[in-house]
């Protein structure tokens, strides 16, 4: 613009000079040369001023970029330190939880074992008590039989006493001839009396035994009922122990998953710290291919000296940790490089990937650095 203005001004001056009188002579030419020189000097000064402004602006912009880079680096470092400190505290507390979970698991296992042992002992006790109850029932029946036999013996003894009494009466009637018979009758009477007394004692003993057996049967029945309640309680306690064991296992699994997530968070922080190169917005075609799979077409989002971001169709078969070959179109040129997938975020318009370049040809590296520095 300044050069054009100078040319127009000079042209106008020349035209004015040509239109004027030739009689102005050498004086007018000198004045015109002076004007032209002044205008040229003014234009050159303006060019120098503009160049200084451009240089100052570029210097300020470079300084601002450097300051922004330093600020970003400090922020990433602080973010990693905060993540590491938080992760360390959480990991320490989770480690305590893991130890408590282990103790709870051992306690639940021990409780389950004791419950199982008690249940088996209770089952054995019930079996023995039922066997004893059956034996008592049989004994009671046998005692009833003994009581019946004792009753029969008692009746026989009573009849024997009656016969002995009749024999004594008949011996008394016979006088001297019946003395020997009277002695025998007395012996029979004495034996009958002794038998009757023994029979009564047997009956009393059998009755007492029957009462004891009945009481023992009631006690055994109560024991069986009590043991059955113990078995039921042990069953409930065993169920509680099983539930506790399952809860502990789920808690242990949850704690393990949480610790893995904390480890993943630490890895993210480490990747954040490693990302020292600023990303620059970019646009161009991208092809991402995992070995053994079909290539996926996408769009370039940004690029840095050691990585790039791209957007692939949603549901693309590319996962974090995959090693890929990426073909990138950047500034009218195309290059191919090896990369690792370090980030994936599924969005409504597709799947956004973050790639860390691991194998880049020298020409491609220069192309990337030139684009980022532009």
UniProtKB/TrEMBL annotation:
Keywords per UniProt: Coiled coil, Transducer
Keyword Aminoacyl-tRNA synthetase part of the UniProt annotation: no
Annotated Gene Ontology cellular component terms: membrane
Gene3D superfamilies linked: Methyl-accepting chemotaxis protein, predicted glycosyltransferase like domains
Region annotated Disordered, chain positions: 57-77
GO terms for MF: cyclic-di-GMP binding
UniProt record, GO biological process: signal transduction
Domain Methyl-accepting transducer: 54-215
Protein known as: Methyl-accepting chemotaxis protein
